[in-house]
Design brief:
two-stranded parallel sheet; 7 helices
Length: 271
């Protein structure tokens, strides 16, 4: 029998501003990711303050990138009439890959400004990102965002609340739950295997994360209710192919960097 979700996406209203469950869960996800990044950073010799500063950069860039790509994909036509809508994140609409691309760009810029080895920074961030994304998808499940196609499987979900983003009364694949579980498994694999991956070279953990992420999302988007745009593939799947290719390149770079490695020093105090 399908699971029924009848939860108001708005958890509480404060001073007239609706606070959604999605936003609260994202705060929990970000907090967990920052804690993991700081812990792994200490193991890799990254000063705690550097990890915190990087988290601020990544958070802001991920939010901006996620919103920008979502608007370009889904709401570009409405911007002429309502230009300010692009900044209204609280109204929903964030692209997963837009956030990922924004975060990667932020890490590149941050590493260059601080004089930090980029591959090490990527490796520190990768497991934390997987954990944060796994938790964040639970927010999508509550609100009906990123819903799947109709199914008659016994573990389907049916949304009843009018505020949900998913169609009401239709048994759907709980793709948000699928992705949360698979990302949690990816995090576990990265966290438990990070020392072994590290022996391949700096950047190998990040490469494994990107490849795993691209593989998970490529497969799950066959169950997502979105139109195909090219050769039967959806936009996120095409982006995923690019992310997967980037992961392969990063893995090759990691192996080559290991073969020609030289001692690295931190210059965390550089502005």
């Amino acid at each position: 029998m399908p699971f029924v979700i009848d939860i108001d996406p708005v958890a509480v209203t404060l001073l007239g501003v609706p606070v959604r469950w999605y936003g609260l869960i994202v705060v929990v996800a970000a907090s967990a990711a920052i804690w993991l990044a700081r812990r792994e950073g200490r193991r890799r010799g990254v000063p705690p303050q550097v990890a915190w500063d990087a988290a601020i950069w990544v958070g802001a860039a991920a939010l901006a990138g996620g919103r920008l790509l979502y608007v370009l994909q889904n709401e570009l036509g409405s911007l002429a009439a309502h230009p300010a809508h692009i900044a209204m994140v609280w109204m929903g609409g964030l692209s997963f890959y837009g956030g990922l691309i924004g975060a990667l760009v932020a890490l590149v810029v941050f590493s260059r400004r601080r004089g930090l080895p980029l591959l090490v920074v990527f490796d520190v961030a990768a497991p934390a990102a997987a954990a944060g994304q796994a938790i964040g998808h639970l927010g999508c499940l509550v609100g009906g965002d990123s819903y799947g196609i109709a199914t008659d499987l016994p573990w389907a979900v049916i949304y009843r609340n009018p505020g949900a983003m998913a169609p009401l009364g239709v048994p759907l694949h709980p793709t948000q739950a699928y992705e949360a579980v698979l990302l949690a498994l990816l995090f576990a694999g990265l966290w438990l295997g990070r020392e072994r991956l590290g022996r391949i070279g700096d950047g190998a953990v990040a490469a494994a994360y990107l490849f795993g992420l691209a593989t998970i999302r490529f497969g799950l988007f066959f169950l997502r209710d979105e139109p195909a745009v090219l050769v039967g593939l959806k936009t996120a799947q095409l982006i995923g192919l690019g992310i997967g290719a980037l992961a392969v390149v990063l893995f090759i770079v990691a192996r080559q960097a290991r073969a020609t490695s030289t001692p690295l020093t931190w210059e965390a105090s550089r502005p």
